[in-house]
C-alpha cells in the first residue's frame, strides 16, 4: 500500500523569457502499524511500489517536453513534496509550495521566480480535502488522482478535478458481479471511517433492490489505537463463525492494513489461509506491501478487484530501463534505489547492511512484482493522464492568449495569465493519450471513464498475474456497461473442485418459487412448487407465472407446452358414433316417409292425417340432420344456426304432434250428435296450431340473433391442458327460453294426449302420442342437469344425444307401429277391418 505522498510542481520555461508553471503530483506514505500480537513496532518506511507514481509523473513531463506539437517552446518543470498521510503536514507543504518557503509568510511571495499554475495531488480523501481548503482560497486548480470521497463531489466547496471515475459505476459493477455469479449471501468489510459508512449506505440499498443480503459487516480499525488488537480478534472470529465464501472489502492501504495482518497471521504463522473470494474495491491494491510486509498468496488467490482503468503506455518500460540513480535528479530516487536493491550510496550517506554499493546498472525489471511492477498501475496511469490534461489545458489557454495578443497588437506574456483561468480550460479538455484512450471530464469534473475487473492469480513464490476479466464502463452503449468473461476467472484453490457458492440457502430450481421466511433475511427463503396452471422458468423465481393462453404447464411446472384444441370432431370415436346414429335415424325417417308415400291412399295413412304426418316426418328428418351442425369445429356460420335451427325444427315437430293430438280429440268429439266441435275439425285448425307455435319460436330466435347471437369462442379456463373450442351462446337466457318454449309445447301435447288416451283404438293415436311425449319430455328434462354438468365437447355431445333420442322417441313411438301394420299386417290396413273394429 502507499506509504508516501508526493506533490510535484511543474515548471514551464519560454525560450525568450523564462517563466514557470507548476504542476503538483502525489503519492502517499504511511506509518506501518502492527498490533502488539505481531510483536513489531510501528515505524515509517517507504512503499517501493508507489514510487512508480513519481516515475509516471516524471515520464509524462519528459514526453511533453519532447513533443513539439504540445506546448512548443515551453519546458515543464516539477517539484515534489511528500505528505505521509498527515493532514497537518499537507497544510505545511501546501503553504510552502504557494509561498516559496524560505520563511515567506502566507499571502507573500517575495523570492519566487516560477509561476504556479496547477497542483496534482491527494491520494487520500483527508489529504485532498486539506489541500482543497487551502488551494480553493487562492483559486489554484487541483487534480486529485486517488480520492473517491463523495464529499469531494460538492464542486462549490471543493472545485477540484478528479482523475478517477465517479464511484457510482463501481457500486453498479459490484451488484452486476454478484448477480452474474448468483451470489446473494456475502460478508462486507469496510474501513472504520466516514468513507466506509457512506459506502455501506450507498451499497446496501442497491443490494436490497437486487435481493442480495449481507451476512455480516465488520469495520477494520486504524491500527494506531490501543483497542486494535481486541478488535482484530473479534473480526477474525467472525470469519470463522460465518462460513461465508465471498467477502467484499472497501478501504485503502491505511485502513486495510489490519486485514492484511489477520491474513498474514493465519496463513504464514498458523498455516490456515483464509481461502475466500475477496472482492476488492479500487481504493486498495492488495499487492502493495510495506518493506517488512508479507504477501499472502494462498488467501488472495482468485481475488476479483475493481481497479482504475489503465492501458499500456508506449515507452514507459524503456524509460524505467534507462533509469540510473547516479545520473538522475528525480526526487528521492537514491533512497528508492537503496531500499529496493539493498545497496549503499556513500555519497548520500545511505549504507546497506550487506555492504554492497549501488552501481546504477541494477534493473527494475529484476525486482519481484511485490516490490515493483513494470506495468503502469491505475493510479500511476491517472497521474500520467493528469499531467497531460494540465498540459493540454495550458496549450489551449496559450493558443487563446496568442490570438488575443495578435488582435491587441501586444506581446503574449505568460506571467499575466492567472491560474484561476485554467479552470475553464480544464473543464473542456478532451484528448487521446499515447495509449489511445480518450481523456475528458464529465459534468461533475470526474474522469469520464470506468473500472476494470481484474482477477488475481497468485503463485507459491509470491509472484502473481493480473488478468483483466471484465469492465464496468458507463460510457458504453446501454446494456453493455458491464461485461465479464466468467470462464476466464481462476478461483482460489479451495474452489477448484466446485465453483464458489455464496447463498444462504440452495437455489429454488425451475418449477418452484421462493417465499421469505419470517424473521429471516430475504435471501434465506423457502422454495414452494408452483400451483396448478403456473410455471417458473427461472432459478430463484420471485413468483410463478401463468402460461400464455395457447400453452399450459408441464408436470414439473417449468415449461409451457402447447394446449390441444378440443371440440367434437369427426375424427374421434364420439363424433363418429353420433354422426352414425344421426345418419341412421335420418335414413329410417326417409324409409318411413317413403313407406307412407308408397301407401299414401291406404286407410291407415288417410286416417292419420296425411299432411300433418308428412310435415312431422320432414321436420324429424331436419332435426336428425341438424345434429351435424354441432359436430366439427365451431365457425362463425354454424354457431348462430345450431340452436336456432334446432329450436325451430323441434318446435315445429312438437307442434305437429300437438296438432295431431288436438285433431284426434276433436274428431271423436265431433262424432257425437249435436256437438258444435264439428266445424273445427279440418286442415284449418292444424295449420293454425302449427303456424302459431312456429311463429312464436321463430320470433324468439330472431330476437336472440338480433340482440346477442352465438359466436365461436375459446374457453381457456375450464381445462388446464386443453383449449375448449365452443360456441358461446351469447345469451344463456335466450337459449333457455328457446328450450323452455319447446318444453312447454311438449308438456301441453303430453297433457292433451294423456286425457285422450281412452278413446277408441282404431283411429286413436293418443296413447302413442302420450308415450312418445313422455319419452320426449324425459329426455329434455334430463338434458338440463347433464348439459350444465358437462364441459367442452361433452356439452355438445349431450345436446346431440338429446336431439337424436328425443327425435327417435317420436319416430319410434308414433310411426313404427303404423309401419308394422302397413308392411307386415296389410290385412289390418283395410277399411272394412278398421270399420269393424
Short description:
With 837 residues, this protein is an alpha/beta fold. It contains 21 helices and 30 strands. Strand 29 (711-715) and strand 30 (722-728) form a beta hairpin.
Specify the overall morphology: rod-shaped
- How large is the count of helical segments? 21
Oligomer: single chain
Biggest sheet, open or closed, and with what strands and sense? 8 strands, mixed
Give the arrangement of secondary structure elements.
Layout: E1 6-8, E2 12-14, E3 21-23, E4 31-32, E5 43-44, H1 51-66, E6 74-78, E7 80-82, H2 87-98, E8 115-116, E9 119-120, H3 125-135, E10 142-144, E11 161-162, H4 168-180, E12 185-191, H5 194-209, E13 213-220, H6 228-241, E14 246-250, H7 257-269, E15 277-280, H8 297-300, E16 304-308, H9 316-321, H10 333-341, H11 378-407, H12 422-427, E17 430-432, E18 438-440, E19 451-458, E20 464-472, E21 482-484, E22 512-516, E23 525-529, E24 534-535, E25 545-546, E26 551-553, E27 560-562, E28 564-566, H13 573-598, H14 603-607, H15 610-625, H16 638-670, H17 683-707, E29 711-715, E30 722-728, H18 732-755, H19 766-788, H20 793-824, H21 831-836
Parallel strand pairs: 3-6, 3-8, 9-10, 10-11, 12-13, 12-14, 14-15, 15-16, 28-30
Antiparallel strand pairs: 1-7, 2-6, 4-5, 16-19, 17-18, 19-20, 20-21, 22-23, 24-25, 26-27, 29-30
Helix pairs in contact: 1-11, 2-3, 13-15, 13-20, 15-16, 15-20, 16-17, 16-18, 17-18, 18-19, 19-20
Amino acid at each position: 500500500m502507499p506509504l508516501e505522498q508526493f506533490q510535484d510542481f511543474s515548471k514551464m520555461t519560454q525560450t525568450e523569457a523564462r517563466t514557470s508553471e507548476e504542476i503538483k503530483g502525489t503519492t502517499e506514505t504511511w506509518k506501518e502499524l502492527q498490533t502488539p500480537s505481531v510483536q513489531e513496532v510501528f515505524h515509517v518506511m517507504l512503499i517501493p511500489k508507489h514510487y512508480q507514481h513519481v516515475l509516471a509523473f516524471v515520464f509524462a513531463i519528459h514526453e511533453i517536453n519532447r513533443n513539439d506539437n504540445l506546448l512548443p517552446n515551453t519546458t515543464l518543470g516539477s517539484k515534489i513534496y511528500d505528505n505521509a498521510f498527515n493532514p497537518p503536514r499537507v497544510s505545511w507543504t501546501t503553504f510552502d509550495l504557494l509561498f516559496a518557503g524560505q520563511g515567506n509568510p502566507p499571502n507573500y511571495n517575495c523570492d519566487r521566480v516560477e509561476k504556479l499554475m496547477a497542483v496534482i495531488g491527494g491520494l487520500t480523501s483527508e489529504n485532498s480535502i486539506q489541500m482543497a481548503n487551502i488551494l480553493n482560497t487562492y483559486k489554484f486548480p487541483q487534480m486529485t488522482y486517488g480520492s473517491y470521497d463523495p464529499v469531494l463531489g460538492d464542486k462549490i466547496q471543493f472545485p477540484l478535478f478528479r482523475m478517477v471515475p465517479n464511484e457510482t459505476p463501481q457500486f453498479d459493477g459490484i451488484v452486476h458481479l454478484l448477480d452474474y455469479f448468483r451470489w446473494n449471501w456475502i460478508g462486507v468489510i469496510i474501513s472504520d471511517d466516514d468513507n466506509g459508512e457512506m459506502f455501506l449506505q450507498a451499497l446496501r440499498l442497491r443490494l436490497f433492490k437486487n435481493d442480495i443480503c449481507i451476512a455480516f459487516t465488520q469495520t477494520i480499525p486504524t491500527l494506531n489505537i490501543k483497542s486494535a488488537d481486541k478488535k482484530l480478534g473479534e473480526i477474525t472470529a467472525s470469519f470463522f463463525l460465518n462460513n461465508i465464501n465471498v467477502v467484499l472489502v472497501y478501504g485503502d492501504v491505511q485502513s486495510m492494513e489490519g486485514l492484511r495482518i489477520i491474513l498474514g497471521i493465519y496463513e504464514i504463522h498458523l498455516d490456515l489461509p483464509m481461502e475466500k473470494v475477496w472482492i476488492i474495491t479500487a481504493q486498495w491494491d492488495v499487492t502493495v506491501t510495506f518493506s517488512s510486509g508479507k504477501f499472502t498468496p494462498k488467501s488472495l488467490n482468485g481475488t476479483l478487484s475493481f481497479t482504475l482503468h489503465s492501458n499500456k503506455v508506449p515507452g514507459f518500460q524503456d524509460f524505467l530501463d534507462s533509469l540510473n540513480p547516479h545520473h538522475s535528479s528525480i526526487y528521492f530516487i537514491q533512497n528508492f534505489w537503496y531500499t529496493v536493491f539493498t545497496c549503499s550510496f556513500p555519497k548520500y550517506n545511505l549504507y546497506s547492511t550487506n555492504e554492497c554499493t549501488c552501481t546504477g546498472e541494477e534493473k527494475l525489471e529484476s525486482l519481484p512484482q511485490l516490490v515493483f511492477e513494470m506495468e503502469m498501475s491505475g493510479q500511476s496511469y491517472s497521474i500520467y493522464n493528469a499531467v497531460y490534461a494540465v498540459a493540454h489545458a495550458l496549450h489551449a489557454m496559450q493558443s487563446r492568449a496568442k490570438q488575443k495578443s495578435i488582435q491587441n497588437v501586444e506581446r503574449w506574456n505568460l506571467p499575466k495569465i492567472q491560474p484561476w483561468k485554467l479552470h475553464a480550460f480544464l473543464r473542456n479538455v478532451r484528448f487521446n493519450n499515447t495509449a489511445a484512450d480518450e481523456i475528458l471530464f464529465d459534468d461533475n469534473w470526474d474522469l469520464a471513464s470506468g473500472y476494470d475487473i481484474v482477477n488475481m492469480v497468485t503463485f507459491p513464490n509470491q509472484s502473481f498475474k493480473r488478468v483483466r476479466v471484465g469492465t464496468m464502463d458507463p460510457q458504453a452503449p446501454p446494456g453493455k456497461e458491464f461485461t465479464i468473461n466468467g470462464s476466464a476467472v481462476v478461483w482460489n484453490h479451495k474452489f477448484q473442485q466446485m465453483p464458489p457458492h455464496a447463498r444462504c440457502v440452495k437455489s429454488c430450481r425451475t418449477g418452484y418459487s421462493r417465499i421469505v421466511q419470517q424473521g429471516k433475511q430475504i435471501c434465506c427463503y423457502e422454495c414452494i412448487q408452483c400451483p396448478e396452471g403456473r410455471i417458473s422458468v427461472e432459478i430463484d423465481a420471485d413468483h410463478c407465472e401463468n402460461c400464455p393462453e395457447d400453452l399450459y404447464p408441464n408436470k414439473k411446472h417449468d415449461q409451457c407446452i402447447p394446449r390441444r384444441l378440443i371440440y367434437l370432431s369427426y375424427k374421434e370415436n364420439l363424433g363418429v358414433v353420433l354422426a352414425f346414429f344421426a345418419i341412421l335415424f335420418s335414413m329410417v325417417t326417409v324409409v318411413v316417409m317413403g313407406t307412407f308415400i308408397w301407401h299414401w291412399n291406404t286407410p291407415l295413412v288417410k286416417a292419420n292425417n296425411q299432411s300433418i304426418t308428412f310435415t312431422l316426418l320432414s321436420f324429424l328428418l331436419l332435426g336428425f340432420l341438424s345434429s351435424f351442425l354441432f359436430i366439427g369445429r365451431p365457425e362463425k356460420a354454424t354457431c348462430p344456426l345450431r340452436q336456432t335451427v334446432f329450436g325451430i325444427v323441434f318446435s315445429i315437430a312438437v307442434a305437429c304432434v300437438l296438432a295431431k293430438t288436438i285433431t284426434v280429440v276433436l274428431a271423436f268429439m265431433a262424432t257425437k250428435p249435436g256437438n258444435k266441435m264439428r266445424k273445427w275439425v279440418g286442415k284449418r285448425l292444424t295449420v293454425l296450431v302449427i303456424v302459431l307455435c312456429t311463429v312464436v319460436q321463430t320470433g324468439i330466435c330472431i330476437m336472440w340473433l338480433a340482440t346477442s347471437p352465438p359466436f365461436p369462442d375459446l374457453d381457456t379456463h375450464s381445462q388446464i391442458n386443453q383449449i375448449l373450442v365452443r360456441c358461446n351462446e351469447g345469451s344463456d337466457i335466450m337459449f333457455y327460453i328457446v328450450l323452455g318454449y319447446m318444453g312447454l309445447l311438449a308438456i301441453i301435447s303430453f297433457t292433451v294426449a294423456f286425457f285422450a288416451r281412452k278413446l277408441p283404438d282404431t283411429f286413436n293415436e293418443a296413447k302413442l302420442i302420450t308415450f312418445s311425449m313422455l319419452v320426449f319430455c324425459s329426455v329434455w328434462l334430463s338434458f338440463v342437469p347433464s348439459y350444465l354438468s358437462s364441459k367442452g365437447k361433452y356439452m355438445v355431445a349431450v345436446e346431440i344425444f338429446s336431439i337424436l333420442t328425443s327425435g327417435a322417441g317420436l319416430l319410434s313411438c308414433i310411426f313404427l307401429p303404423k309401419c308394422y301394420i302397413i308392411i307386415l299386417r296389410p290385412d289390418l290396413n283395410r277399411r272394412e277391418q278398421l270399420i269393424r273394429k
